[in-house]
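In response to a reviewer's request, we include the raw inputs and outputs for one of the modeled complexes. The two entities were modeled together in a single run.
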Amino acid sequence: PVITTLSSFISFSSQQRIEIHKLRQGDNLILGFSIGGGIDQDPTQNPFSEDKTDKGIYVTRVTEGGPAEVAGLQIGDKIMQVNGWDMTMVTHDQARKRLTKRNEEVVRLLVTRQSLQKAVQQSMMS
Amino acid sequence: MSAAMDTESTYSGYSHYSGHSKKAHRQGRDRHKSPRSKDGSRSEKSVTIQTPPAEPLLGNDASRAEDGQDDNWGETTTAITGTSEHSISQEDIARISKDLEDSVGLDCRRYLGLTVAAVLGLLVFLTPIAFILLPQILWRDDLEPCGTVCEGLFISVAFKLLILLIGTWALFFRQPKADIPRVFVFRALLLVLIFLFVFSYWLFYGVRILDSKDTNYQGIVQYAVSLVDALLFIHYLAIVLLELRQLQPMFTVKVVRSTDGESRYYSLGHLSIQRAALVVLENYYRDFTVYNPALLTASKSRAAKHMAGLKVYNVDGPGNNASGQSRAMIAAAARRRDSSHNELYYEEADQERRVKKRRARLVVAVEEAFTHIKRLQAEEQQKAPGEMMDPREAAQAIFPSMARALQKYLRTTRQQQYHSMESILQHLSFCITNNMTPKAFLERYLNPGPTLQYDRDRWFSKQWTLVSEEAVTSGLQDGIVFVLKCLDFSLVVNVKKIPFIKLSEEFIDPKSHKFVLRLQSETSV
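The model returned the following structure tokens for the whole complex.
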């Protein structure tokens, strides 16, 4: 019997709420990830966005063992809101400021993540 | 091609000339052929037959007649040869008489045209003077005295006639540079116009003034002045029609030489086909490289090899299916796996290498030869009178050291007929006189130049025929094709109209050039 399998990738995006507790290092409170993007940046150079005109804020790097990784933030996530503030139409600097407010110890992010799920189908069995 | 096949199959009996059936064969052939010879001519000695030129069979009749053992060959054979040196065939006589007619006809026509124009011009020029002088001669006493006004008019007539004379000399008095098949339409029109114009003026003058012996002399002089003014305007019309109208380019013309595909583009204005042909030919002598039949032998031998490969035998029946045969030939040739493309590639690569090697040797030899010559300055000329040479002798002195390399190079590029030793020596002394470098001396030999550069008898192209579907005096239109044929090759000319260009304007404020940086920064938080 010959089995032909057809596997396809289906991608969908899911929204997640992530709560990060900032870590104090010296005089600074760090979150442990890097952001890229913004309405003043070039969206075509964003490797994580599906739509190359998307000027949103994306997570470009997550430091190992940092607060962001512990909270479950992943590389490639798009940050939609920070503590209720919208992040889809902000400049890069505005995004940075919103994340690094001095008097906040906890930031609650609403992120969108594209996840891929492999669907395996058996198409022919003979 | 199929005709060659036909003759081969029909006359295949003749190629094996054995003894036994010869007499019967030949008599049969003669009976078949003698009516044709009678049709040719009784007084001439020979008749030409339309055979394909590659076919040697029929041309060997004379020699075969001698080889044969037939005793009666003197009576039974008709000498079916082409033209020999001692006889003139019907064709030759026809051709000679046609040549005579043609040359006499053309010359006559050209001189006729010129004389008509000259006579008309003289008549036209003397007419105003006649208008002014005739009343003075014929009825001087009756004329009203006409003082300063008339003298002023005389001066203006004189100067206007002078201007007209100079203008006509500048415009029309030129050596005719070409013989064209049909008359120049615009020139003929202008001549007719002038003739009608002057004729009507004379008519009016004769009826109104001479007959009635008008006494108003001032009116007569003014009449003559108006004639001269009108003649000046006709001269202006002539300039516009003959010279100015074709200056603005309207057509682009592509000229392709039929033998090797060399092509050029030219821009022309509104011209008739024959004038366009003239322009193309004038530019041909300057722009196209000289026609060299020696360069075409390679492709001809390849073509011959293609044709000689296959033979068609008609096994099914006696039907003369010529088109079927040729189709079968083409199909078989397409299927055959021949390696001629390979040969061509390697041959061309070899030839290129050979030419480059010879060229390098030539350049070195010439450079070395030129170092032996030094120009003497004026002061030095008095000091060393013994060894001084003029350019010709200097050329002869250094020529032997480069002669061999040059000859070998010319042989390799198949140019050796175009340069005789005398011409090379002349060119060398010319270059020495004008302080040219070896490279400047060699440019004439390294690349084939335009036809004008070479001797007239190597041109291969002096008599041209214009072949055109449209009338040759009609103007150029888009899509017209005409062919300029000479004996060895032809130039195919394709006319295309210059497209109508829509040009629009856009204004860009210099202050509006602004730029922005494309950033992709990454910040760690």
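As requested, we also summarize the result in words. The first helix of chain B runs from residue 2 to 10. Residues 250 and 269 of chain B are 5 Å apart (CA to CA).
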